[in-house]
Amino acid sequence: MSEPASISLGIAGRYAQALFELAKDTNALAVLEADISALADALAASPDMTAMIASPVIGRDEQAAAMSAISGKMGLSDLMANTLALMASKRRLFVVPHLISDLRARIAADKGEITAEVTSAAKLSAAQAKKLAETLKASVGKTVILNTTVDESLIGGLIVKLGSTMIDTSIKAKLASLQNAMKEVG
User: Fold this and answer.
1) Mapping DSSP to helix (H, G, I), strand (E, B) and coil, where does residue 170 land?
2) Fewest CB within 10 angstroms: 7, 28, 76, 167, which?
3) Quick check: 20 and 106 in contact, CB under 8 A?
4) Distances from the Cα of 112 to the Cαs of 2, 145, 146, 162, 166, in angstroms?
């Protein structure tokens, strides 16, 4: 991992830990979860917002004013709004995407859930996703939330990443393995 990325993860981790503990102490984890979902959706929908939080050119006061307006418009909780204001005053808004993913992981762990990253050659049907989640739950003993993406280059099959475990049943991987075996023979 590059040094700037690890620094960002460290900063985001400290804010996430504090925010998570405050929300847990006040029984506001559900509100925090709603806030981070709304914030993630806003970042995904607005390239301008993403650019604003990452810009070194925009000053603290402008970032703080923008985040205050955004927080108010989105109806974020006081805890989240105050955290974003603090991050703006400290020029730390650039770690908000890492903060969101860290908080999601903490909330999921608190609920006894784990997220599996699933890449498939075609979009999974609801029945396929449910069956996969049940199979993974039986394997790990926790509720599994699937984060699915489609990559048509896999030709067929799945790639499942669950924690530090990766299962690759894609046809692309099998063909690559066969190709390597053929090179060794010839």
Assistant:
1) coil
2) 7
3) yes
4) 31, 11, 14, 14, 20
* Tens-digit pLDDT profile for residues 128-178: 999 999 999 998 989 999 989 999 999 999 999 998 899 999 999 899 999
Residues with Cβ within 8 Å of 8's Cβ and at least 6 positions away in sequence, in order, are 94, 95, 98
**What are the angstrom distances between the C-alpha of 101 and each of 33, 37, 92?**
11, 10, 16
155 contacts 139 by C-beta, under 8 angstroms: no
Pairing of strands 165-168, 158-162: antiparallel
Residue spans of the domains in the chain: they are 3-109, 113-185
CATH architecture type of domain 3-109: Orthogonal Bundle (1.10)
